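Case study.
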Amino acid sequence: MNAEPKRRRAAVIATVALVTASLAACDSSSGGTKPASRSRRAVTITLMTHDFFATSPGVLDSFTRRTGITVKVLKSGDAGRAVNQAILTKDHPLADAFYGIDNTFLSRGLDAGIFVPYTSPPLSEVPAQFQLDSKHRVTPVDYGDVCVNDDLAYFQSHHLAPPRTIDDLADPQYKNLLVMENPADSSPGLAFVLATIARFGPTHWLDYWKRLKANGLTVVSSWDQAYSQAFSGSSAGRQAGGTKPLVVSYASSPPAEVVGVNPPPTSAPIGTLLDTCFRQVEFAGVLRGTHHRAEAAALVDFMLSREFQQDMPLNMYVFPVRRDTPLPDVFVRFAQVAPHPFQLPPGEIGRNRDTWIGKWTNTVLR
Amino acid sequence: MLNVHGLTVDYGTARAVDRVDLTVKRGEVVCVLGPSGSGKSTLLRAIAGLEQPAAGRITWDGTDLTALPPHRRQFGLMFQDHALFPHLDVSENVAFGLRMKHVGATVLRSRVAEVLQLVNLQGFEHRRVNELSGGEQQRVALARALAPSPRLLMLDEPLGSLDRALRERLMVDLHDLFSARHITALFVTHDHDEAFALADRVIVMRTGRVEQAGEPQDVWTRPTTEFTARFLGFDNIVDAQIAVAHFGPPVARSAWGELPVPEGTPAGAARLALRPDALKLDANGPLCGVVESRTFRRDHFLLRIALSAGGAAEVAVAPDALPDLGSTVRLSVDPEGVVVLPVLHANGQTKS
Amino acid sequence: MLLVLVPVGFLGLFFVYPVATIIDRGLRPGGRLDLEPLRSVVSDPALRHVAWFTLWQAAASTALTVVLALPGAYVLSRYRFRGRRLVWAAVTVPFVLPTVVVASAFLSMLGPKGPLGALGLIGTVWPILLAHAFFNYAVVVRTVGGMWSHLDPRTEEAARVLGAGRWRTFRAVTLPALRPAIAAAASIVFLFTFTSFGVILILGGPRYSTLEVEIYRQTAELLNLPTAAALSIVQLAAVIAVLMVSGRAQRRRAEALRLRAEAEIVRPVRTIGARLALAANGAVMAALLGFPVAVLVERSLDDGRGYGFVYYRALAHSPGNSTFFVPPLEAVRNSLVFALAATAIAIVIGGMTAFAIARRPQRARGWRPARLLDTLVLLPLGTSAVIVGFGFLITLDHPPIDLRTSPALIPIAHALVATPFVVWTMVPLLRSIDPRLREAAAMLGASPLRVWREVDLPIVARAVLVAAAFAFAISLGEFGATVFIARPDYPTLPIVIYRLLGKPGVLNFGQAMAASVILMVVTGAAVFLIERFRAGSIGEF
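After joint prediction, the assembly is written out as follows.
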């Protein structure tokens, strides 16, 4: 109920023009849609994913047309729950392929051994920074940044320069302005905590949180409470009487505020603090125990195809990992990508996650 | 013919019905008479099959029914406070048993009409039972029990909750109905007027056991135990020693003095039971006492008289001959109103 | 015996087995029993605090709900006034709203800029209690009101004549007669609030936590099954203890009551007192139930520049042209189909259970299974949905019952939650049937089965309808169990709302509010229609 998608992150690609140019040079048949399987029988495979998986109509049909494989989508709750369900059912898997495990859950899935290795041919088009599993048990599909967003109008009308860095947030001039999600329940909340651990190191990060708490931090349970209720910059939050001009959300939140607004505004009402971001990368993989390994692999290939990659931003508010993917206009104009996002190795996150959340809870909530 | 043999019913550790024997012949109306708590309703429910007997047998024309569930006994039971189905109207209530017998629609309709006419409720077919008066409900209950023509009709305090005038009228109705239709009926009541008005045979029950059984007239005039005597209104009970003279009637020597007893009474220890109307105000009577209280009873007064010889007597007198409170009166005894209870025998029977 | 076996089989397969398996997996991680998590859970002061808060907020919420709703039950069951049926159906609507939506309505109502912001309740426990009262008002009104509208008013009149004042009469005569129904309603409310999740999370903020929230975190987020299993055992133990206490309160008054036809009891509003009572309850309902709903409706219409149907229109047209989009009609249809199926299951299972429990409560021997069933049927209400959902995943995976991805699991999960309502609506009425009615039917030649069909069934027909309306409404609004079931995509309205809320942008949020309003209307209409049935039933009494 409280859990929210982790997939609304995005960013602007400064180099869209470049990318588009290289795209044009690309061989269009290298879309990686050739199934690894020799068999072209009509089979149906199941893709297990989170509730926020979405494509434009016809995208999965075109996969079926090309490969003869029909995809049944099994939405299994938010990202964490979907992963956990895959782990729980690994003896009798519910699906053949999985999409939507991110770097904060990755080591749990890998340790549980739910994926079989598969190296997708189009992986060559994906920058190495996203390839977090050297054994290729999972394949990166998209990424996004969890960042602090600011209500531009608030800072303008209060003649206050918005904060820029994580450290700035603890500055007394920003007292009582920030709302964030509880990392125990919410993935952007956790990502932001991880960003502070990456920033201050595992020994000093809690000191920062003591300062942030003293500076009037507000913690709510879920992303929609933070963003659509407490945050003064989002349209829903404005209506709900939100009072906090700073919120932990996504770099893709600004374009989301613009989509669907009539007439289209020239600028987004909110901005992104690019030095506060934690990068989330989402992966797909072939589930161990599937009877349709080749077909599942074909689906992974398809997710790296230009067609699918291109379709992702507006449906899931994420950035495609493939270099040569053109971005939709609103992303080009309103989304930004953090140039130096914070990151932590998935193994370290997996090992310490529970401890970190416990310590954070004791420091901030009790 | 209903035959009940050695029927025993337990409620937890309490024995509600204790080795009761009973027969009801075809066309006979039998009444079980007893105060509340005597086990008479339980006896009825056991015969109906609603209570599981601990011991004993129930047979109909020689067929053992003891293990048969109630709905297959073909007995009818009219409940004390009717237990009409609140979700059904009058005709649906009456038709219920017929439907259970899968009677066809036409027959069913005519039978319902017939039975409702029998109890004088024509025109009430579609009334809700909650809207009926007590007497009307009682008649619906009777009609409902009669409609499927049970081989034995049982009635639990059929007139219990009704006012006196209505009760007396319905008593007559019931009597006519029973005799006109040759209904075999077993009913229980605590009211001896009802029992003697309706029954061919009366069974007096006390704490789960049969105290006395017989024709109404016999039971009424010759109770065999002190319990029956008191229950039937013999308010005066006195210990006595019967002496039989060689000539002349036997005489009882009691705490009250010498009393006449009926011819043929054997000598020995006895208890005498006297109805209040067996004692008469008589200026030359042998007994003497002071009027202690006077209570009005419909057609007479009941006097309580403290006897000079000791003890007290209940005496019925006509309203026109009423003595004052505190006045001294003399009384004579009508030997025909005196019943001799065999004292040892009676105790022995109840204590065994 | 069948009456007991079928429900026990159903609950055994779809509740006990999955839950026991997941607890077993938690407590025997390597095949060896390890009670260490249980010990550390019990001795952890933070968790003890959580357990204590869980208990007291549930008790306080229950008390508040009963106090607010009893007068409402009285007014709705004793007075005849225009629109009574409508109000009766309308009070049910809050019960089915998704917690996310209600909580956000409360938040905007009580928040700093909200109309009641001046009360300063945010951050206190009051929003939690009020939201719980909002949700469960209908439980008390319907369970108690259903009984009240059949209670013989003459017993009250007798007490008045004997010199008892209004209040004494209520305490000495009415309250004892209503006790089974009140105990039933209070137990349901207690279970709901004891396992409250969304309301606590959203309105309580991170400071307040319940066992349910902790179980969810340990299971869904951390996959820490040992701790989750230990917490579940603590939660189940508490729930069973509560059920035993309330079960005793209900059984104590198992004797037959004289029930009257509702038509004989309901009377028109004539006196000033009656008018005042009506007005006061109207005010409570308006403030407690109407206000948050109004806030919701308002937000579904407010598009930032004025009022209109922008979000409703948006629901019908896919803006992003995405597979995320679910046509609202399809969601409504899914919801209705699942609700029908869930209601059917709940009525069959709950009905059998109710008859098994209500039959011959006096007989000491041989009815232990019914007693057991009495408690068993309620346990799903007191068990974390995530535990049941994950339990499904790891148990129902062997053919022939690989139901894990079957859409049938959804109505089954809904039925688990709805069955207790069926049982608790029917049992008090069944118990109050004069046993001599059954005997009378038997004497007239009706076999036990026939007695049941001819006497019990028609008399409780109304209760069955009330129960069906409840079950239907529960299924329409049920969310917790649904999200934890792996399933092919048959999104119901609450799921659509939840997904919309999880996406940024005013359009999605507004659509979530609009979908909530549609859910309210569908529910209200469904309940109203079901209730209309009884007008034609001969069994109304």
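Observations recorded in class. Chain B touches chain C at residues 48-50, 69-72, 74-77, 79, 83-88, 96-97, 100-101, 128, 130, 144-145, 148 (CB under 8 Å). The radius of gyration of chain B is 24 Å. We will return to this complex in the next lecture.
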